[in-house]
Amino acid sequence: MPEKDTIVSTKTKYTGIFLFKDFYRFCYDWLIDETNLLISEDKYTEKLEGDSKNIDIQWTGIRKVTDYFKFEVKVLFRILGLTNVEISKNNTKIKTNKGSVEVKVKGTLIRDWQGKFESNAFQKFLRSIYEKWVIPSRIDQFEEKLIKDCDEFLSQAKAYLDLEGKH
């Protein structure tokens, strides 16, 4: 059984004007381009409430870092009260969206993801020695990288939304 440690769990919120499909594409592309994660969409639900909709999206991103370490990043989007609006920009009417967005990110470092140290109690004992005495600095290094990637993704998503809202 691989060892999974949640290293970072954080979120950001935004309420205002943004184009949902562009924000979705920006987040997806950024994660693939900047973190090399393989992204799968585990959930996408829309609920209509009058003229607005609520959307829940869940992505899982996985990246094999070494034969021993793997990154897993879960991203949850909750969009509430998404409505279509029209705004004026440079005397031109633009169709966009308005609503509230919450983005949660959870980064997990998976150790021994292939289960090589799982065959018996002695192997598990060897893994604990390996992790405690041989590779503790590598573990720290990968934890820091995972935290940095997750924090940077949230910063980029927030910056994108802040920029979009300043029409």
Notable characteristics:
167 residues; alpha+beta; five-stranded antiparallel β-sheet
SSE map:
Elements: E1 3-18, H1 20-35, E2 38-49, E3 52-64, E4 69-89, E5 92-111, H2 121-134, H3 136-164
Antiparallel strand pairs: 1-5, 2-3, 3-4, 4-5
Helix pairs in contact: 1-3
Can you describe this structure?
The protein has 167 residues and is α+β, with helices and mostly antiparallel strands. Helices cover 35% and strands 49% of the residues. It is built from 3 helices and 5 strands. It has helices at 20-35, 121-134, 136-164; strands spanning 3-18, 38-49, 52-64, 69-89, 92-111. A 5-stranded antiparallel β-sheet has the order 1-5-4-3-2, covered by helices on one side. The longest helix has 29 residues, at 136-164. It is elongated and about 70 Å long. The mean pLDDT is 93.
